[in-house]
Amino acid sequence: MQIFETIESLQSALSGAAANTLGFVPTMGNLHAGHLSLVSRARGEHDLVVVSIFVNPLQFGANEDLDSYPRTLDADTAALIAAGCDFLFLPSAAELYGDDMQASTRVQVPELGTHYCGASRPGHFDGVTTVVTKLFNIVQPDAAYFGLKDYQQFSIIRKMVDDLALPVSVHGIETAREASGLALSSRNGYLSAEQKAVAPLLYQTIKGIGDALAAGDQDFKRLIQAGKQQLQDAGLQPDYLAIANSATLRPATREDSHLVILAAAFLGSTRLIDNLRVSV
Ligand code: AMP
């Protein structure tokens, strides 16, 4: 695996690589089995696999965990070599944004980005779409792989690619979970042993709602209220819990058949998200 820190060095290696197809996996590092499942999908489908690790300051709010976000480059490098990654791109913020990040151009998907995580984290998705666009332009992949664990992010990127006719196919990969059901996340590392025992309840709650929906329950309001209560009783503070149309992310109606249950909750100061798609 070759490692590049500048756009120029990566692009010169890309133009010299005799590859028919290129698969790309953007990440923020601290890689776990969820990230690596994206890499292995890319590996199975392309001649050349490029992974980026960049903790993107543009997508963190002022009071969020940019400084404490886990950075584990040695372990990540070893895991990517084992997963068959060809090129690892490790840009600095200055390499991507120059010396005045705030003055840099933004890419914004208006409606999809304003609810749920977008409401709780203003500007977050603009940071994501901006960096993903820039990385696409640098790497010029045929396909890019994203986790369905971040379902709103995946929906926004898919729409951005469609709206802007970006020449890349976007793949959503199923969420990797612990045996308890807890979705793998770099932020799980913030949890204490006691919190780790409680955290799986987030998935159990949305799974319970999903089972009820699949069984024909259409009382969305009651399901959400009961779900929020269940989270609170266990010590999880719900940020949002919603049943939405899985294509538009608008609040679900009784006519919708493809639904997604979206959830975010705080456990202490750690914010966990999860979702479950259900067809009824
Ligand atoms: P991150 O490093 O958190 O920005 O994640 C990089 C990519 O990995 C994103 O597309 C995430 O959606 C995806 N990802 C994160 N956690 C998981 C998981 N548990 N299962 C599958 N994909 C994931």
From TrEMBL:
Amino acids binding beta-alanine: 59
Residue numbers binding ATP: 28-35, 147-150, 176, 184-187
SUPFAM superfamilies the UniProt entry points to: Nucleotidylyl transferase
GO CC list: cytosol
The enzyme's E.C. designation: 6.3.2.1
Pathway: Cofactor biosynthesis; (R)-pantothenate biosynthesis; (R)-pantothenate from (R)-pantoate and beta-alanine: step 1/1
One Pfam family per UniProt: Pantoate_ligase
Keyword presence, ATP-binding: yes
An example molecular function term from Gene Ontology annotations: ATP binding
Additional remarks: The reaction proceeds by a bi uni uni bi ping pong mechanism.
Summary of subunit composition and partner proteins: Homodimer.
Role of this protein: Catalyzes the condensation of pantoate with beta-alanine in an ATP-dependent reaction via a pantoyl-adenylate intermediate.
Name of the protein in its database record: Pantothenate synthetase
Organism: OM182 bacterium BACL3 MAG-120507-bin80
